[in-house]
Amino acid sequence: MPRWSEIAGRLRGLGGLRALVSRRRPDAELLEELESTLLLGDVGVTATERILEAVRRSPDEPANALRRELLQALGGGAPLVRAAAGPTVTLAVGVNGTGKTTTLGKLAHRYRAEGRQVILVAADTFRAAAAEQLEVWARRTGAGFVGGSPGQDPAAVAYDGVEAALRRGLDDALVDTAGRLATEHNLMAELRKIHRSVGRAVSGAPHEVLLILDAGFGQNAVAQARRFTEAVAVTGLVLTKLDGISRGGAVVGIASELNLPVKLVGTGEGVSDLEPFDPEAYVDALLDTPDTAR
Amino acid sequence: MFESLTQRLTASFARLRKKGQLSEADVVEALREVRVALLEADVNLRVVQGLVARIREEATGQAVLQSLSPTQSVIRIVHEALKETLGGVSTRPPLSGQDLTVWMLMGLQGAGKTTAAAKLGLLLTREGRRPLLVAADRQRPAAIRQLELLGQRVGVPVFAGSETDDALAVARGVAVQARRLGRDVAIVDTAGRLSIDAALMAELRAVKQVLAPRAMILVVDAMTGQAAVEVAQQFRDEVGLDGVILTKLDGDARAGAALSMRSAVGCPIYWASTGEKPEALEVFHPERMASRILGMGDVLTLIERAQAAVDPAEVRRVEQRLRQGTLTMDDFLDQLRQVRRMGPIGDLLKMIPGLNRVLPKGTSIDEHALVEVEAIIQSMTVRERQHPEVIDASRRRRIARGSGTSVQAVNRLLKQFEDLRRLMKSQKGARRPGVGPIGPFGPRLP
Ligand SMILES: Nc1nc2c(ncn2[C@@H]2O[C@H](COP(=O)(O)OP(=O)(O)O)[C@@H](O)[C@H]2O)c(=O)[nH]1
Ligand SMILES: [Mg+2]
Question: How much is the ipTM here?
Fold first, then answer.
């Protein structure tokens, strides 16, 4: 079970970048090196150009300027929102396979460890065995479980689950949704409907709408994130699979363009592989993205 | 957002042209746009650098400098280079004649292996093979159940061993099970794993040793970023890699990973997965992929889908009725269904080059409206469908109720239908060649 700090540490000092970054002025060689690093970290051309321009202009040492720019774009972490009264409702949304179900499972574990009463709600009635997958997480974490039958209206299942949390006086309802590509008009409409129906069951819900992003994704993640935020009021980002070799740099552009905080990171498949986002550690790891592809 | 490469190149050349003749340096300058386009498509940086160097060599030749449309010349050169890199004709993994063929699927978590396994099962069944799906993902909760359900759906048996079996134990049972069920191809779904996870990579090697697969197939998400190359190289070096299935191509990712696979990893792309339905597995077309990576639309796929969805005899029949002005609501419904069979309308529009630019930003196609039209027509009697002019106010109310829509919606459809008939009548005599299935209805659908 690798901790995020360990992962960041493992990567530290990989490239020749660190030596270059200690230079006092941003010369051409340094800027080119920085550009490659950011591009290979999936930061993308647009965000990279903007950041490098700021570094070039800054009177500060490039290393400091760069860190500051990245941290500013990421906008610091943010705590998870709690409902003032009644159950806190969290909705996980995102593209297929990014880790929505797993993230909610891990979140349930975390909340259970804090002594809360949690229910996992399987509003993914589309993918084969999606409900069973979440149910396994419920058993693992001692959370309650509500699921529908295959093909049932996911908004109705979400409503039932959240309503059950309210009725039973539970602390948290974690609602899992089916993966969807944001280009699918009707599936995005379905997502809006789930969002609305959760709000009908508990006023003010959902309190958190977490967009789950796969660290392995490249620039299409930006377009996906944009459309998800257009469809529902996303409140925060979760970056998963940071235990792999990808750093998920697209999140830099996403966080700054959409003004959304990264709230959690996923670092494995185990129950406790979910941590609060640490922008400093993340920036370190990003700047040490290995460059081995030839 | 991304503007098409064509646009950017044109702007770049126009700027440079102002100075008079194009110089070699000008072309090099314009090639920056090519670099940006490739990076935005998630082609690996090192691959981009190699490609741009190669394109530069060709593009700085006299032909481009003197051509009237340097944009077109450069695009052609870039397109050719990509196509070549992506490989020629599409290939597929080998099948043995008599003995059991084993194909193993592997990849990162969430890439789409299980779905791909079921799709291959269906594909092979349709080709007259007798496939067996093997559930060797013993890691992810309910992964076995997912494969079993998908197997049921596509009518392919699933071998899952006993509950406590690990991947290796399942692998050991495959040959016997395949013989017992008379199966000739085993498609093995394995757990998602990180290429840097030594223990799980060792497991994969062990499973491979037991099964002696004809093909080790890496399943790669079309949205994958820069690391696609390194991940694939690691799978190749650690366990061996023969080819790739690229998934989630029904989204709008430009899938630069495809290019990286060929040029940096050196393996072919067997199939492209384009949806969640079991049928959504397409042969990989390098030519189309090149266009997609450059953001230039995908007309060929569009045409192919149209051909698959549309019955030519039917087209001729409708064309005739259109010309005679005797079109009925039933014809209208048929056409609608044919268009819908080609996939989500939004997808179709995206495949048309340049259309993203012409359509107002944020245009979205309301699939629901099409469903509504279908419901309305289905609520009409046979006579009403043949002679829509008999539909009076009370009939309209009944149809609205029956279809769960509103009288306004019924009115709108009838009006559109009437307009269409009138338009066609006014053009009677004037032969309109090539009125295809989308032609008359496309722009008029609500
Ligand atoms: N290595 C790693 N795998 C993860 C992480 N989060 C999720 N996964 C895996 O990614 C795959 C897809 O996850 P799942 O939760 O089913 O995705 P969903 O389709 O978005 O619900 C599963 O195999 C998970 O175990 C993570 O942080 N690290
Ligand atoms: Mg899920």
Answer: 0.92
